[in-house]
Each structure stands twice: as structure tokens, then as C-alpha cells.
Amino acid sequence: MNIKQAYDNWASQYDTNPNKTRDLEGNALRLTLSNIDFDHCLEIGCGTGKNTVWLAEKTKELLSVDFSQEMLARANAKINSNHVQFKQADITRPWEFGKDKFDLVSFSLVLEHIEDLDPVFKEAAAALKSGGHVYIGELHPFKQYSGSKARFETESGEQIVTCFDHHVSEFTGLAKKHGFAIELLNEYFDNDDRKEIPRILVLLLKKILGVKIKK
Fold this sequence. Notes:
The chain is 32% helix and 28% strand. The protein has helices at residues 3-14, 20-33, 52-58, 69-78, 118-127, 141-145, 168-177; strands spanning 40-44, 61-66, 84-88, 102-108, 128-139, 151-154, 157-160, 180-188, 200-207.
């Protein structure tokens, strides 16, 4: 299903449907970023605001972006803060969010819906101040290989959102290409059971000072 249409349709039930991936990624983000300071944050894939509320408490300025207008409307309804702004945008196109502005760019369960990640990493690097961080929380590739995809139920049946497989080496290779150091690579498991396939992959990247980015 078309990604924007799918998330517009999913918005009304996104917060109430059982969703292990949504919930575990939210926990992963909080654990990963709890000890990191950031005054200016760009949140990519804010959805209905599952992480926005927490990020807003950590930062002085938060710009939360999503492809779905319906998701954004629900996030906006949750948050009443002068330092939080919401914007509808397609991040596969050139970003207009400001260059060298943010201390943190976060991606939550959004990169699986983008086929070519190279331009996205390039834009994220340009948006960050030197020394700034990128947080990536994604459905683990191992889950993708087993056939797991974003999906939800409607009156007409199950709807599967368009997804693309991305390997761990793809994330790490693009990080290096665009001038990032990998500070953390972690995996999160259902019920913390490490005998099972991990559900969430997390990377924390840091923009390196003075690194010449490969083209």
C-alpha cells in the first residue's frame, strides 16, 4: 500500500492497536538518548507523537516531521508547547529544515519505507552541527528477512505498508560515507529474550569534526 495513504489510514488506531515494534522502539529511544544532551532536535517519523512527548522534555527546540498529515494531526493534539513544531514533509526530497542547526536527528521506524537511503543520510549530515548525533531505531533486518512488515487491520482486511530491506552493513557503510562515527549499535528483543530474533536495531551516530565526506 502507498506509504502516505497507509499511515493516514492507520492513524486513528495506531496508538490503541497492540504493536510490539512501536513499543519496543520507544523504549530503545529513551534508553539510548537518556544521557545525551541536545538543545535542537529534528525528529523524523514522529507519527502520532509516541516519542515526541519525551523528546520535547529533553530539548529547547523540537521540529517533528512526518509524511502523514493524519499522523501529524494526532501528534499535534497531544502536545501543547511553544518549542515544538510539526511539519509534513517527504524526506526523500531535499530537506528545508536548516543546515548545521540540530544537535540530534532521530529516525524512528521510518527508514524501512525508503528504498534509497543515501540521500537521506546526506541530508541528515547537512542538518547536524559538528559533533551532533543521529539516532536510528528500525525494525531489525533479521525480522525483515523473516517476512515481518508494518501492517494493520481494516474493515476490508489486512493492509501491508510498502517496505524495503536494509542490511546492517548498509547502515554502517552509509554512516562512514557521510562522515559519522558509530558510537553504538544495539539490538532489542521481545521480553529481552536473546534466544529469539531481535526486533529492533538501534544505531547512534556522531558527526565527526573536519571529516571530508565521500561523494
